[in-house]
Amino acid sequence: MIEEILITQLDPRQVKQLDAADKASLSNPGYSVEVYAAILKQSPGCLELRKKLRALQFRIAQSSTKGLSGLLGKVTSAPFMLRGKGDKDPEGLLVKAEDLIAKSPGNVLAHHMLADAASALGMVKTAVFALETIKKIQPKDMKNLKELGNAYIEAGDTESAITVGGEIMKLSPGDGDAEDLMKRASVAVAMNKGKWEQSEDFRTQLKDESEAQSLEQAAKAVTDSKSLEDLIRQTYEKYEKEPENLNHYRQLSDYYQRYGDLENAIAWIQEARKQEAGQADVSLEEKERQLTVEYFDSAIDQWEKAFQESPNDEAVRKSLEESILNKKQYQKNQLESLVQRYPNDYGYRYELGLILFEEEDYDGSLPHFQLAQRNAKVRLDAILHLGRAYSRKNFNDLAIEQFNLLKNEIQVMDERKKDAIYELGCCFESMGNQEGAIEEFKLIYSADISFKDVADKINAFYNQSGA
User: Helix, strand, coil proportions of the chain in percent (round to 5)?
Assistant: First the structure.
């Protein structure tokens, strides 16, 4: 158990340090956060200090992100966390929760962890504070609202419990849990010789409950997001009963992905991979990789929109470039690891070859494209890029072999065949064989006059011939 105390009850030396940190909070907030966090770790029961720390953490996060910055860091800095109920080390859980909140103040799961740890340690007001913080982040989270109402009752704040109960009933008229919450709150008020009847919100809610419920039901349309929220809750309950069942993890990840919460979608897959049955599951690893790439793409899309709105903003341009670079680096690191662990998965080799090719590392890409031809799904594309890698190295004779192979093997004049013939013509041009080049360009011109600059090449040839 940890006693909850005020700042004035701290060691005088700590109080002096906090005074200095308070004065520096505007000019050097990072320093103030470090001081607050260090003293809170020594005196975790000081709720007043925890509130100071949290307010400053949110202020720094808001000023630094501006809605977009730091998005790419969240995948690695906000790993999945299980709720802390029943944890054998609530004090350690308390520290872990604060560490996670320090990395991402908006991390709802970390605040839940804090609430659970605080409750286990008898820090009822700290638990209330954690749940109140979640309410600010997700004001319509029904499960959190109910937990908050119960926490208010436990803390003796019955008026706040009645207010939260009223909020729940407005969101979900006729909710049995809310009604039970308000009844228990009213009993608690009466036992404390309070007059719960004076709560205008509660009396009005009771009076209008029937009417509100009928109006709500008449106008209510179950949206996709609401349906997904229900599915997430239902699946989470299944997970709590069967934590070893990987299907629950996959399902939760899928629901969060559809909900647009990619962080949680990734987090559930990460947690699934920690389970004994999931450690050797390659499909989970691939799912995490796909979700993370989608996460990066989402960040890039946001920066591109911001850049379109502010094309002269150097900071936005730099952030967009960094986002693109971070995505490429992530993909490269992942694929290098996958190729090393699964050398006979030629699909991974093709993907890695593409990244190396884009980086103009043609020597590095060649062996991957050569081996990737063993995968039927990517064989033709691998041949095309193998030829391109040879041609970029000016190994035109080797490149011509690959492009001719595709030209003869592909029967329909699709985009891939046009690409191969175009590259073939360019190889002839590089070798000074203008007649050979123009014959290839003519094949494309007769099928698709708008393909790349083929029309220009053909026109230039005939104009020169005419001259």
Answer: 80, 0, 20
What are the helix (H) ranges across 81-197?
Answer: 90-103, 108-120, 124-137, 142-155, 158-171, 176-191
The DSSP code for 46 is B
Q: 317 — phi, psi (to 5°)?
A: -60, -45
Q: Which of 284, 293, 276 is nearest to 249 (CA)?
A: 284
Is 464 strand, coil or helix? helix
Q: State how far the Cα of 117 lies from the Cα of 90, in Å rounded to an integer.
A: 5
Q: Which one, of 55, 70, 144, lies nearest residue 108 by Cα?
A: 144
Residue ranges of domains in the chain: 7-220, 221-278, 281-333
pLDDT tens digits, 289-311? 999 999 889 889 888 988 898 89
| pLDDT for 66 | 43
Using left for φ > 0, alpha for ψ between -120 and 50, and beta otherwise, residue 80 falls in beta
Structure token digits, residue 61: 């996060």
- C-alpha dihedral sign at 408, 411, 413, 419: negative
Residue 186: φ, ψ to 5°: -65, -40
For residues 441 and 422, the answer to whether their CB atoms sit within 8 Å is: yes
CA–CA gap between residue 175 and residue 194 (Å, rounded): 25
CA distance 455 to 461: 10
Instruction: Report the SS3 class of residue 193.
Output: coil
pLDDT tens digit string along 233-267?
A: 888 889 989 999 999 999 999 988 888 888 888 98
Domain 221-278 CATH class label: mainly alpha
**The domains spanning 7-220 and 221-278 adopt the same CATH topology:** yes
Handedness of CA 345, 350, 351, 355 (dihedral sign): positive
Phi-psi region of 452 (alpha: psi -120 to 50; beta: other; left: phi over 0): left
User: Residue 449 is encoded by which pair of tokens?
Assistant: 């006059």
pTM exceeds 0.85, yes or no: no
CATH topology of domain 7-220: 1.25.40
For residue 319 the two structure tokens come to: 């952030």
Is 133 strand, coil or helix? helix
Three-state helix/strand/coil letters over 262-274: HHHHHHHHHHHHH
Cβ burial of 292 (10 Å; 0-12, 13-18, 19+) is: buried
**CA triple 167-171-175, angle to 5 deg:** 90
